[in-house]
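Q: Here's a chain of 328 amino acids. Please give me its 3D structure as C-alpha cells.
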Amino acid sequence: MMNTLIERFAEQIEEAISIGQNATISPDTDIKNIYVAGLGGSGIGGDFVANFLRDQLQVPMNVGKEYDIPAYVGPDTLCIVSSYSGNTEETLASMKIMLERGAKMVCIASGGKIIAAAKEHGLEYVQVPGNWPSPRACLGYSVIQQLYVLTKKGLVSDTAITQLQAVADMILAEEAGIKTEAEAIAQKLHHRTAVLYSTLALEPVTVRFRQQINENSKALCWHHIIPEMNHNELVGWKDKRDDLVVIYLRRADDYKRNQIRIDINQEIISKLCAEVIDIHAKGDNLIMQSFYLVHLVDWVSWFLAELRGVDSIEVNVIDYLKGELAKA
C-alpha cells in the first residue's frame, strides 16, 4: 500500500498545484511574522517552506510543534494551521489560542475539526483531498498549499510557484533511476542503523528521511547538520561501529566551505563505520532538489521496510498512545 502512495507522488504534486491555484486567499500587507502550527507529516511541510523562502521572506517564519504558541503571536501574525486529518490534538489546542489572540489565520486540512472551526469562525482555509490513508504520504499537499498561501498573501514573489511546475515532470522522468538507487541503499541499511548528515539547506529532507525510517521502516536512526555537527558530534566518532551506515545528502551548490567540510568528515568517519554513502540531489533549484530527494528517501524507507518484513503503513504504537491520551 505505501509503495502505491509513494508512486503517486508526482500525481499528488500536480493535484496540489491545481488546488493552490484555485484557493481563495486574500492579500495582506500588514503581516509582521508567520507562525505555522503542525506536527509530523503536516508540521514538516512548514520546515520545507521556511527553508525554501529564507532568502525571500522579509518577516520571520517559525514552525511550532506543540500545544502552545509563542508570546509574539498576535493580530499581526499570519498563522498557518496545518493538519492533514484536521484533528491533530496539539494543533487544535494551539489554534484555540490563536483565535483568542486574534491572529490572522489560514487553515490547511482535509476536513475534521480544523475545517469545521475555520468555517465557524469565518477563517480562510484550503481543503485538500482526504482519501490518502497515511498523512505522512501527503507532504506535497502541505508544502505546496503553504507556498501558495504565502505567495497569495503577497509575502513572496511567485518564483517558488513557478519552480513547482517542473517538479512532477522531473520525478516521473527520474522514477526508474530513483527506485534502483533507493533499493541499493536499503540493502546497505539492512541490519544496520542509519546516520544522516546534510547542510542546512537540506535539513528538512534529512528530517523527513529520519521520520520515514522511523515510521515506514520501523527503525531508529539519527541526523545532524553541517557545519554545526563539526563543533560537537564529530568528536563522538571515536570507536569503530560496524553497525552504522552514514549517509550524506548533498547538492552541487552547497556552500563551498561546507563541501570541503563534508569531504574531510568522510575521510574521518569512513574509518569508523560500516559504510559511507553519498546521495546527490538533482534539479535546477532547491525546491526541485528537495522534492527529488524526498521521493528517493521515501523509496529507501519502503524498500527497507520490505527487507525488515514490517508493514510500512501501520503505526499501532501511535494509535495506542492516542488511545491512552483519550483516557486522561
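Q: Can you summarize the key feature?
A: DSSP finds 13 helices and nine strands in the chain.
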